[in-house]
């Protein structure tokens, strides 16, 4: 009996020592991130680097071993990086929560952690405006749906200047289903910064065509321009034109010659092509 409780005490002292080391490392990591913040351009409006975060998470999930559950590991690092992004610059999160419940707030909390303020907005359009105006550092908006009456992503295709862009897709690791909830919530994070190249990314390209063309024709235009694996994730039909939101399985920037080929290959049909961001591929279990 005594021996057992002695052994237990010893193990618990080891656990205390490990907790102290973890805690010390966390404080040391915080000090390093403060140095990273000083090295960033002062006019950077948001400290968030979704690509770097994705690379960290991929590296850790690959080296992970043993019985500690991977979703718990991801959650701990989400909390750490979420906390540290807001220590570098003021950080606030605009969340679209159009329906009852708090599915998108949960997604935002799982990704950015518990620390920073989250403000609920009734529509994705409000969130886009809040981020564009600098009222919020990032926004969480539902993934586009085919039958959206007023797709929020259209406002990311128009105009110039520092428009918000899609930078992340949530959740970064598929969540366990919640009993009683029909569908998992999924969202895009938008911010006034370009999406990052992590070597495993998707890019979102809005293509405006006059007149309307079929999806098959659109896919053929992408293929002819040298862009494979383009799938449509949203559409908007106006009186004299159609806008497709296509998702491409690679990292593409606005100056990519393939986009010029896409416009040229469409002769007069493709009026406008615009990248509205992209995101690192979500973690695979
Ligand atoms: O590497 C950076 O740029 C950081 O700001 C550090 C850090 C991190 O905690 O590792 C924090 C926030 C960023 O979104 C990405 C990574």
Automatic annotation (TrEMBL):
One of its GO terms (molecular function) is chorismate mutase activity. SMART domains: CM_2 (SM00830). It is an enzyme of class 5 (isomerase). The keyword Amino-acid biosynthesis does not apply. InterPro entries: Chorismate_II_sf, CM_dom_sf, CM_II_prokaryot. Pfam families: CM_2. Keywords: Isomerase. Residues 2-92 form the Chorismate mutase domain. It comes from the Bacteria. Its EC number is 5.4.99.5. This is chorismate mutase. It comes from Magnetospirillum sulfuroxidans.
């Amino acid at each position: 009996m005594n021996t057992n409780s002695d052994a237990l005490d010893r193990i618990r002292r080891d656990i205390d020592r490990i907790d102290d080391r973890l805690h010390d490392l966390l404080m040391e990591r915080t000090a390093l991130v403060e140095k990273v913040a000083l090295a960033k351009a002062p006019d950077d409006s948001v400290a968030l680097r979704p690509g770097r975060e994705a690379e960290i998470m991929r590296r850790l999930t690959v080296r992970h071993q043993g019985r500690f559950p991977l979703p718990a590991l991801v959650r701990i690092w989400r909390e750490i990086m979420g906390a540290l992004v807001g220590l570098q610059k003021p950080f606030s999160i605009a969340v679209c929560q159009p329906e009852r419940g708090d599915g998108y707030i949960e997604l935002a909390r799982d990704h950015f952690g518990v620390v920073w303020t989250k403000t609920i907005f009734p529509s994705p359009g409000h969130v886009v405006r809040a981020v564009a105006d600098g009222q919020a550092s990032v926004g969480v908006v539902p993934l586009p749906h085919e039958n959206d009456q007023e797709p929020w992503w259209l406002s990311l295709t128009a105009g110039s200047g520092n428009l918000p862009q899609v930078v992340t897709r949530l959740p970064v690791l598929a969540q366990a289903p919640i009993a009683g909830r029909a569908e998992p919530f999924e969202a895009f994070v938008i911010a006034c910064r370009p999406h990052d190249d992590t070597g495993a990314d998707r890019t979102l390209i809005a293509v405006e065509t006059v007149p309307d063309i079929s999806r098959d024709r659109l896919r053929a235009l992408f293929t002819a321009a040298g862009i494979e694996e383009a799938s449509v994730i949203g559409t908007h039909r106006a009186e004299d034109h159609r806008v497709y939101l296509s998702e491409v399985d690679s990292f593409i920037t606005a100056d990519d010659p393939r986009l010029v080929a896409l416009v040229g290959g469409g002769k007069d049909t493709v009026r406008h092509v615009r990248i509205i961001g992209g995101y690192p591929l979500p973690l695979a279990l």
